[in-house]
Amino acid sequence: MDPDPSPARRRLDPPLPAPPAALRRGPFRPGAFRSPAHGPRTAVVLGRWLGAALLLCFATGLVSHLLQDPPSWLAGRLPSRPVNGYRLSQGLHVVAGLAAIPLAGAKLWTVYPRLFAWPPARSVLHLLERLSIALLVAAVLLELFTGLLNTLQWYPWPFPFRQTHYWTAWTAVGALLVHLAVKAPEIAAHWRRTRSAPLPAPLPGRPTGRPTERPTERRAVLAATAAAVGAVTLTTAGQSVPWLRSLDLFAPRRPGSGSGTGTDSLPVNRTAAQAGTTAVPADWLLAVDGPGGYRIGLAELRALPQTTAVLPIACVEGWSADARWTGVRLADLLRRAGVPAGSTVRITSLEADGPYRVTEMPAAYADDPLTLLALALDGRPLTPDHGFPARVVAPNRPGVLQTKWVARIEAV
């Protein structure tokens, strides 16, 4: 048996009264939770892992949000390099989010016996603490659930995904910071590895002798959790990490393996049929508006000096793929229309509706020599699903902003 806990430990783990006799059954019965794996040391270690995954997910998600919808003070400062910047940040976002799912399950399993502590609230402060934990758990589970279904492009809810996902993330991080502040003494007490860490506060009916959180059981839980996280990561990260493509068993998109349409394997999120752009007029003309605005057809665009660049398409769902794009530099088209360098550009698509039918491109992207009005993909003319007759491709830019079926380019 362990020696009597120290006064500091008793302050962290005060004894709890037993529930009424009518409730002394099921999870409230004496000795209902005896597994050492439910101890505080296990909870702290899993909490470190889960916290790291959630904070990485939050930081990279914030990058994605700011690139898609930058505030006015930031729009002119967004960088177009590195070329693979968004690919890296969004790939990390989805990988961290998927890894957080088994971590959240393990963490909840470790601490769920505390749901049955009696009394449910010992004071007003204790009640507020438990409510903050409920908010934290609800926000994290909603964030992971909606994020997972977003990777599948399945939205079975009536609310807008992007705005809900964004504000739920702030709620989860705020609740997490409150939880860390409240639990700081207990976290500090179990942060370092010890030979024999006491179990949490005794639940109803616990005998006087306090069993220890044995390292063997703790290591088994941590090893199983690490194995689950590793398996999830290795079998899904290949959609954004090229050297893991051969292990990409469960990711919804598998770039480079025939998952696209037509003769190429670049995935497509929104097809021409969905956008209503399958019938492009034979007399299609691109409008380039500015002081010397003009209209130009496809044959004339193809006769202009062409640039070829290997650029990734990286989407919010986590997949990304390199492709060889050929077309006219966007900056050349703008200078021909008399649009000065340093101008923000508005791009309009032929599609009738959709949240990204009209997008704005900051000057850093519009002036970048790698930003193209692409006419060909991997040496072949664009197919309708990839944006025929012309689409915009820019470095370090979310896929939803790589406008397809371009109809108009104008300076803002």
Automatic annotation (TrEMBL):
Positions of the Oxidoreductase molybdopterin-binding domain: 281-411
UniProt KW Transmembrane helix keyword: yes
SUPFAM superfamilies per the UniProt record, alphabetical: Oxidoreductase molybdopterin-binding domain (SSF56524)
Regions that span the bilayer: 49-68, 88-110, 131-152, 164-182
Ranges for region Disordered: 1-34, 198-217
Keyword Protein biosynthesis set for record: no
Key words of the record: Membrane, Transmembrane, Transmembrane helix
Pfam families: Oxidored_molyb
UniProt biased composition (Low complexity): 21-32
Molecular functions (GO terms): oxidoreductase activity
PANTHER family hit by this protein: BLL0505 PROTEIN, PROTEIN-METHIONINE-SULFOXIDE REDUCTASE
Protein name (Swiss-Prot/TrEMBL): Molybdopterin-binding protein
Organism expressing this protein natively: Kitasatospora phosalacinea
